[in-house]
Amino acid sequence: MCLTSTIFAIVEVLVKVATNQSVPDLIVKVLQAPLIGGFQSLPGILLYVFLSTAVFIFGIHGAFVFGAISGPILLTSLQQN
């Protein structure tokens, strides 16, 4: 536990020194912002529905798999609407 905490603390410090931003800020900037933009457009929603349906061919329930990613984003959009 101490080793894992130390490793993540070192990574946090290195990222903060290299980019002058914290790791959560980078995650929001790199991952969350493009997803929000994508889910608020017709092509983004169509891509989500297509991928959800495409993985169903392989026996994977796409709504459950992609729901963890899209759920909070779509709920935020619904709340803003």
What's the helical proportion of residues?
over 70%
Strand content: under 5%
CA radius of gyration: 17 Å
| N-to-C order of helices and strands | HHHH
Could you walk me through the main structural features you see in this protein, from its secondary elements to its overall organization?
The chain has helices at residues 2-19, 23-39, 42-56, 62-80. By secondary structure, it is an all-alpha fold. Helix 2 (23-39) crosses helix 4 and helix 3 packs antiparallel against helix 4. The protein is extended and about 40 Å long. It is built from four helices and no strands. The model has no long low-confidence stretch (mean pLDDT 87).
Write the layout of secondary structure elements.
Layout: H1 2-19, H2 23-39, H3 42-56, H4 62-80
Helix pairs in contact: 2-4, 3-4
Structural features:
extended; single chain; 4 helices; 0% strand; 81 residues; mainly alpha
Brief summary of the model shown:
This protein is an all-alpha fold. The protein contains four helices and no strands. The protein has helices at residues 2-19, 23-39, 42-56, 62-80.
